[in-house]
Amino acid sequence: MITFTVNGTQRSVTSDPDTPLLYVLRDELALNGAKFGCGLGQCGACTVLVDGEALFSCITPVMLLEGRSIRTVEGLGTVDEPGPLQAAFIAEQAAQCGYCIAGMMMRAQELLERIPDPDDDDILAALEPQLCRCGTHMRVIRAVKRAAQALAQAQALAQASEGAR
Amino acid sequence: MTHAISRRDVLRGTGALVLAFSLSRHAFALTETGASETPLRGLPGSLDSTPLLDAWIRIEPNGNATVFTGKAELGQGIRTALMQVAAEELKLPIARLTLITADTGRTPNEGYTAASHSVQDSGTALRNAAAQVREILIGEAARRVGASASELSARDGVVIGPGGFHFGYGDLVSEQLLHVDAQPTSILTDPRDFTVMDRPVPRVDIPAKVTGGAAYVQDMRLPGMVHGRIVRPPSYGARLAALDAGPVETMPGVLKVVRDGAFLGVIAEKEWTAIQAMRRLAALARWDETAELPDEARLPDALMALPSRDTTILDVGQPVAPSYAVDGLFSRPYLAHGSIGPSCAIARMEGDALTVWTHTQGVYPLRNALATLLAMPQDKVRCIHAEGAGCYGQNGADDVGADAALLARAVPGRPVRVQWMREQEHAWEPFGPGMVAHLRAALGPDGSIAAWQHDVWSQSHMMRPGPPGTLLAARDIADPFPPAPPVDLPMPEGGGDRNAVPLYVLPNARAVNHFLPEMPLRGSSMRSLGGYLNIFAIESTMDDLAGLSGQDPVDFRLHHLADERARTVVTEAAERFGWKSRPKAPAGSGYGFAFARYKNLEAYCAIALEIAIDQDTGRTVIQRAVAAVDTGQVVNPDGVRNQIEGGIVQATSWTLFESVRFDRRRITSIDWASYPILRFAHVPRHIEVHIVGRPGLPFLGAGEAAQGPTGAAIANAVRDVTGRRLRTLPLDAATVRAAMTASSLPTHSPS
Amino acid sequence: MLLKRVFLSGIILVAAGGAAALAYAWRGAIPPIAPPAVTSFQPDEVLRGADLALIGDCRTCHTTAGGRTFAGGLAMPTPFGTIYSTNITPDPETGIGRWSLAAFTRAMREGVDREGRHLYPAFPYDHFSLTADADLKALYAFLMTRDPVVAEAPANDLPFPINLRLVLAGWKLLFFHPETYVPDPSRDAPWNRGRYLVEGFAHCGACHTPRNLMGAEVSSRAFAGGEAEGWAAFPLGPHSPSRIPWTEAALGDYLRQGWQADHGVALGPMRPVVENLAEAPAEDVAAMARYLASLGAPAATFPPLPAAAPDMSGARPQSAGWQAAIAAPGTGQPEGLRLFAAACASCHEAGRPLPLGGTDLALSTSLSADTPQNLLNVVLQGVPASDGQAAPIMPGFVSAMNDAALTALVAYLRQTVAGKPGWPDLPAAIAAARDAAIPSPHAGAAR
Questions:
Q1: Which of B537, B650, B205 is nearest to A133 (CA)?
Q2: Which chains have 3+ CB pairs within 8 A of A?
Q3: pLDDT grade, residue B8 (50/70/90)?
Q4: Does A47 touch chain C (CB under 8 A)?
Q5: What gap in Å lies between CA B666 and CA B674, rounded to an integer?
Q6: B216-305+336-430+462-495: which CATH topology?
Q7: How far is it, in rounded angstroms, from Cα C78 to Cα A106?
Q8: Which residues of chain C does A56 touch, with a Cβ-Cβ cutoff of 8 Å?
Q9: Mind telling me how many Å the CA of A162 is from chain B's nearest CA?
Q10: B265-to-A97, B277, B358, B477 alpha-carbon distances in Å
Q11: Is B683 an 8 Å CB contact of chain C?
Q12: Residue B266 and residue B460: Cα distance in Å, rounded?
């Protein structure tokens, strides 16, 4: 039994410790966000955050994750209340088939937590491990920028209201 | 030929609809969408094969509508576009529509979702059906109040009339009201009055995809579901020589090892167990390999040496010239569809009935193939489309459907989910075929093209089910089905010869299709089929001819174009790019232009772009690409932009990087390390898409319009930078670097 | 920091070292020229220069990630501060467009730029001093016929007094002893060619020879192993820690193709080197291999390779796929073995041939070397995808593995797979490797 938190909720899983996180998320915890793309850490469709850092869940055995904090695209918001990054991807219509997008978003989330105001080069570099086959790259880049702006505005508002108090 | 098809028949997917399919099977095999070439009834779009209005649209008692399409969402946004069309003509808000896509149990048979035909076929059918349903509802309201239908109108799901009376759609509809055949003509909404069409309506599928909703067949979890994996042979045609499956059968969690001839699969309670069992089984199996693949380094020669069936597809004037100003052999390697998500299907055998959830592009053809494969009646097999990762043509979707069905037979009552592994998708998908095109052209004294010859060599681009022999598993089982006969898609759409007939006005021209019945590597439909290479060849040659005659490439094209819509997109792309006023490119940079009308029947697309090449490494990046596109009546402008942007980026990847690698026995491109594609570092720095609106004109598909022009425009830009014409795809860094080195030398030699 | 302080005091001492040093230090400018026309060079000379630029690895330092080749600006962290590489395209204002052949030759051989300023020895003029006139002329022809790129290199970020170029004169006095190449008549032509290239243009010793506290190569310990950008540059010749001794053929294959079945794949700073050599003339690379092989082999014979556990024979798939099924070792087994089986073995025990397959770790020099540096770098950073080329990809485990897991895995690999005693001071090495790896998921991106 391995225990970790997933999107803020503590979960204990019974899968064998050598099972890659991807299959535990999908098959044991019924989360769809992380996708099987290659099983080799080459494409990024399975990307999730562990303790805030993006990794390939398809090659990460859960034995490494005892006590750690995992975040998937489900942890960024919901259909009814999308988070800033999700709202940005919807606003930019940044998907075609969308199979790569959840992993793409987790990589972008890591970037925005590290560099709140990324420039084009930051975004290209950060997303390099992620493959998209439909050619939605231009929209993904725009969506990450839009999310960064939204987060900055939200922070400015929060600071303003903090200051007013 | 008309058939009375009852609602129940449609629901059961049996009876007259099936009869219609089997009667027209011959025609189905001959077009890329599976639709009949010759109209049956003269009705618009797919209404022609499925005329009953309530096969397409049902009005619920609450006034909401359920809309049916035989086409499938492949990530191209078709679900949203079709809902826009239906909502516009029904005068019903999109939120009150439910769209049911390809399902042999519920929807019309619209063949394959392919060839950029979906809006044209299904959109046209739905638009007319919706308009006719609306008029029937208005007529019913008029009948009830004794008014003239012309005094009434429909809005927001309500029929309203003078004096303020109104009926909700739900109040008007009755059992048989919509159970009528469509009429040949409809009262369509004037494009000036559109409120839903020609608007950038947000895609209905995206919210689930960005929040972890169940968006794909890969995400389905049915009660009692188990996981299957397949062990594929190491090479084409390999036979299983020896296997002791005992160690796998006894692995904890393994339910079954399925072996039928050389078809090998495992079923386990958990997915990871199934993968481990698959790997163990693969290690235990011993194979006899017999495949003899061509010499990859000499692929063009190998293809041209194969026996061919030759068809002259264009022959006007005197195409033979005493000498040619341009004479070039163009080639492309085999290309992988390379879906990011390997193919997946879920199959369940319950009693004598099989249900398969699949991301196939053709639920009906797959249903028929599976029925034959499993020796089941067609009405006992139901195929339901569920989205997969983008396929861009025929990937492993159909094959994995057969794999899942064969495994499901071994565990009756339990749904079996099978997903291919990365190496299986890469090695076993039917590739976009390797091809060769030979172009020769001569210039007249006036700078016009005086003679033109185009020869193209290609295997089939259409090896979809129907015949069970198209499915991998059907070839591996102990009692195998014969290989499916190769299909040469006929003109005007064509297969390998797609777009081999230039749209330019050429008084002396010949084009010959050298169809290769043999298939050195497994191949089938991949976006734009032969169009990518043929447009690459034609547009490269056009640029060279322009240069030789001292004309601007855009002027030279316009000089040879009569089609007004073609002239408009060429002019639009050039103007938006600033082609005429383009500054002298800095060292290492250059400009390229290309144009095509996809299939000479679909969307028009012209692309101008600027590239930068690193002189020392040959690394090539698009700095700016400007596309102009005419897709007829636009349903969703943002959807069109998304498709064109995507087409440019995807074709940039094909053009700069991609090539399926193989040795003399096996495919060796089995993952993203051995089949690199474009990553973010190579994303074009800027893309603009300008839509030339054509309100009221027929829909033209947009999904494959940009690929051909993109490859050609890149090659033309490389020529602009290096002075070298590169004709062998891909234009990879080593190739471009060699051209750069040659062009940087102090004394220039002619290219 | 101790290193830095020693270096500083040394420099100050030397700088104060009297008139002789000053006289040596003062170098005049060489007059600027009008940028020569491309047509003033011969094509075959340009092509020969292109080959020498590849062997000399010029573009690796004189190009930023994603930047134009030879336009400079790459930040090179040294123990003493950050030095930025210069623009060596023929742009007249920001590059070397106004440099005459004499100025170029002086820079290459003596480490003095056209204006007369001493260059920092990050530019390996201590090796280039060996280069022949004709070759420098060819390299000059190649560089002067490149497309000029306007790019001003950032100013170096060095503390006082190292930021004083004059101080470098003192350093040169102590450590820079230019020589001309003298062929060894007792050796054949390829060996002499190889030695000329290895010691000169290719400047292999710049990484593979240890440096003293003041950053100069210790010539008495040539090829005894050094360091580059946080990676060990393994000893060559008699000190090589390779499990299977290098042969001339193996060295040739490795340098030309970037991998060798008995040794693995070139990674870290060696990767761009072999990428360049892949384009260089095959006979030159073979000559370098001949010379390097002649450095000798370790006297001591290695113990036979221990059987790597778990024994994967029979688990390797004979199909298109190359991932092996790995049975989980029992919970009683060492944690390192369990981690290896779960996280590494499916690729590294699958038998897929190099370069795309996982290296057979029993043969890896990273496991048998005196330092865990490279092993840790690879485990943490992985091998990022190449820029459009078919090349190995390995995921990094920096986010997945905590220090305890890493320690257990490394212990297993070092002691059981390599059969060697554990590395001393592993925690410090892990901390350093982790620091280096933090930005790494993105570092390879724009290359």
A1: B650
A2: B, C
A3: very low
A4: no
A5: 13
A6: Aldehyde Oxidoreductase; domain 4 (3.30.365)
A7: 35
A8: 395
A9: 31
A10: 28, 9, 18, 11
A11: no
A12: 33
Pairwise CA distance, residues B54 & A139, whole Å: 38
**Packed helices A84-91 and A137-164: angle between N→C axes, nearest 10 degrees:** 140
Range C2-35 burial, b when 16+ CB lie within 10 A, else e: eeeeebbebbeebbeeeeebeeebebeebeeeeb
> Nearest CB to A53: which of C342, C399, C443?
C399
pLDDT digits (tens, 9 = 90+) for B297-308: 999 999 999 999
Q: Torsion angle, CA of C182/C104/C85/B718, rounded to 10 degrees?
A: -110
Q: Looking at chain B, which residues constitute the CATH 3.30.365.10 domain(s)?
A: 45-209, 216-305+336-430+462-495, 527-742
Residues C250 and B679: their CA atoms lie apart, in Å, by: 33
Measured distance CA(B114)–CA(B31) in Å, rounded: 10
Q: How far is B687 from chain C (nearest CA, A)?
A: 20
- Give the range of the structural domain holding residue A107, as residue numbers without chain letter: 2-164
Q: Which residues in chain C have their CB less than 8 angstroms from residue B277's CB?
A: 325
Q: Are B625 and B651 in contact (CB under 8 A)?
A: no
pLDDT for C22: 58
Mutate to test the interface with C, among B745, B747, B748 (most CBs of C within 10 A): B745
Distance between CA C59 and CA C82 in Å, rounded? 18
User: Could you tell me where the beta strands, DSSP code E, fall in B460-491?
Assistant: none
The CA distance from B434 to B437, in Å, is: 11
CB-neighbour burial class of residue C158 (10 A; exposed 0-12, middle 13-18, buried 19+): middle
Total domains present in chain A: 1
End-to-end CA distance of chain B, in Å? 60
Q: For residues A127 and A119, is the Cβ–Cβ distance under 8 A?
A: no
Q: Which two three-digit tokens encode residue C135?
A: 């070759």
The answer to whether residues A37 and A131 touch, using CB atoms and an 8 Å cutoff, is: yes
Residue C120 bridge partners (DSSP) = none
Q: What is the pLDDT of residue B233?
A: 93
CATH code of the domain in which A159 resides: 3.10.20.30
Structure tokens at B541: 């040659």
Alpha-carbon gap, residue B498 to B461, rounded angstroms: 10
Summarize pLDDT for B553-580 with one digit per residue, the tens. Answer: 999 999 999 999 999 999 999 999 999 9
Class of the CATH-defined domain B527-742:
alpha beta
Cβ within 8 Å of residue B18, ≥6 positions away: B378, B379
pLDDT digits (tens, 9 = 90+) for B70-109: 999 999 999 999 999 999 999 999 999 999 999 999 999 9
Kindly state the tokens that stand for C29: 């400018």
**Tokens at B327, concatenated:** 């004479």
Pairing of strands C259-260, C264-265: antiparallel
Cβ count within 10 A of residue B95: 9
Spelled out in words, what is the top-level CATH class assigned to the domain B45-209? alpha beta
In this predicted model, what pLDDT tens digit does every residue of C324-351 receive, in sequence order?
A: 888 888 888 999 999 999 999 989 988 8
Q: Which of A62, A63, A130 to mutate against chain C (most C CBs within 10 Å)?
A: A63
B–C: how many Cβ contacts below 8 A? Answer: 134
Whether the predicted interface score ipTM is above 0.95: yes
Establish if C328 touches chain A: CB-CB under 8 angstroms.
yes
Q: Where are the alpha helices (H) located in B587-691, listed in sequence order?
A: 637-657
Evaluated on CA atoms B449, B451, B457, B458, the torsion sign reads: positive
Nearest one of A135, A41, A125, A38 to B678, comparing CA atoms: A135
Closest approach of B72 to chain A, Cα-based (Å): 12
- Alpha helices, DSSP H, located in B93-250: 118, 124-145, 169-172, 206-209, 246-249
B173, B158 contact by CB (below 8 A): no
